[in-house]
Specification:
This protein has one domain. The chain is α/β, with parallel strands linked by helices. Helices cover 43% and strands 13% of the residues. Strand 2 (25-28), helix 2 (39-42) and strand 3 form a beta-alpha-beta unit.
Length: 124
């Protein structure tokens, strides 16, 4: 499988949405466990809190679209030291679909979207 196809197999989904067969491996990429969600209902295959933004960065950003560009820059800087945790996404993505799960109600400006973008750029 080409690197381009590996990244194409990474999808994004709110953790509160129902799991589906085409999700493939479901990886939670938030530092905190989602409120009010049982492990059984979440159907999470892996939880990678180390690839989530630091608590300080998460609080600073607060899903403010005006801070999106700067958030991504700061988050990329944090991700550069998380090579082992990122391998836990890249390896299963090379074998089939992977869905990055996030809790935020904000579906465009969230850490999972920034993480997927980072993975795409890193593979180029």
């Amino acid at each position: 499988m080409t690197r381009e196809k590996q990244i194409a197999s990474i999808k994004l989904k709110r953790v509160y949405e129902a799991a589906s067969d085409d999700d493939g491996m479901r990886i939670l990429v938030d530092r905190l466990w989602p409120r009010g969600l049982s492990k059984r209902r979440a159907r999470i295959d892996q939880w990678l809190p180390d690839v989530a933004p630091s608590a300080e960065l998460r609080r600073w950003f607060n899903h403010d679209p005006d801070k999106w560009t700067e958030f991504k820059r700061r988050y990329r800087s944090e991700l550069r030291s998380q090579d082992e945790a990122l391998k836990a996404i890249r390896k299963p993505a090379s074998q089939g679909p992977v869905t990055l799960l996030f809790a935020s109600k904000e579906t465009r400006f969230n850490n999972a979207a920034a993480l997927k973008e980072y993975l795409i750029r890193a593979e180029r």
